[in-house]
Amino acid sequence: MFRHVKQLQYTVRVSEPNPGLANLLLEQFGGPQGELAAACRYFTQGLSDEDAGRKDMLLDIATEELSHLEIIGTVVGMLNKGAKGELAEGTENEAEMYRSLTANGNDSHITSLLYGGGPSLTNSAGVPWTAAYIDTIGEPTADLRSNIAAEARAKIIYERLINVTDDPGVKDALAFLMTREAAHQLSFEKALQSIRNNYPPGKLPPIIQYTDKYYSMSEGGEVRGSWNSDKNFDYIDNPQPAVDGGDGSASVKLTPKQQALVKAMAERTQSSTEGNPLTGAELGAGKKKV
Ligand code: MN
Ligand code: MN
């Protein structure tokens, strides 16, 4: 059950309207790293989780993300408030209004002109929100890793947004939202590590002979570190195909009828190594047929 509380999760004080900034903030409203995507991601994961503690955490964080969606959407609305009234009532000189919406090359027509000043379910470039932003697969050891990465990306987008505004109130609200994403990342990392045997994900065991191999697939300038160190890996310099010791060929068993059809097709489309056919490209370039 959801009940709406009228107060925001965090107090927001926007200094002055700024349609261009409003548009940039849409990235965290309806963008891939945004709050709606985060809320839907954790809400759907939580509904299907069999672990009571993890289910509770996912639904807590999903609900907090909805509170963040409310904050960022409210800030977008505040930043558009001036333009909203002016556009709706048409009181400004047209050129003045046009200039205020497109000042500094921003795309604020998306929020202010097309959506009347309200937050739109788009990213900052006007691309509609899509459930394809969410990559849940229904296995906690995989989903928690994806959640950790999603929180890392959200944190970075907030950091970039903080860097493009000098409005202290907006900066303050964004810093709160950014900090909460870092806190979520920590919770997800703890939840992942609280699952025993979380690596590799899933139930099937990996094939032992390939798990600790590092294949150096290029020549020159190899850099060695813990990710390929002798301590952690069997470092294979210049690996030869096939690494399983076989001849590296591929084969499939076909019925006699399938074999005959494949052979017929191969013969029909066989290329000739004889001759030198004249091409349209050569004719176009003025080459004469001999
Ligand atoms: Mn959030
Ligand atoms: Mn988060």
Give an overview in words:
The chain is mainly alpha-helical. It has a domain at 19-193: Up-down Bundle (Ferritin). It has helices at residues 19-25, 27-30, 35-48, 52-89, 94-102, 109-114, 140-163, 168-193, 208-211, 256-268, 280-284, and strands spanning 213-216, 234-237. It has a two-stranded parallel ribbon with strand order 1-2. Helix 3 packs antiparallel against helix 4, helix 4 runs antiparallel to helix 8 (168-193) and helix 7 (140-163) packs antiparallel against helix 8 (168-193). The longest helix is centred in the N-terminal third of the chain and has 38 residues, at 52-89. The N and C termini lie far apart (83 Å). The mean pLDDT is 92. It binds manganese (II) ion (2 copies). Residues 38, 65, 151, 154, 181, 184 line the site of one manganese (II) ion.
Which CATH architecture of one domain?
Answer: Up-down Bundle
Radius of gyration: 29 Å
**CATH fold topology of one domain:** Ferritin
For this structure, what is the CATH class of one domain?
Mainly Alpha
> H/E element string?
HHHHHHHHHEEHH
Shape descriptor reads extended
Tell me roughly what share of residues is in helical segments: 40-55%
Question: What's the overall average pLDDT, rounded?
Answer: 92
How would you characterize the largest beta sheet? 2 strands, parallel
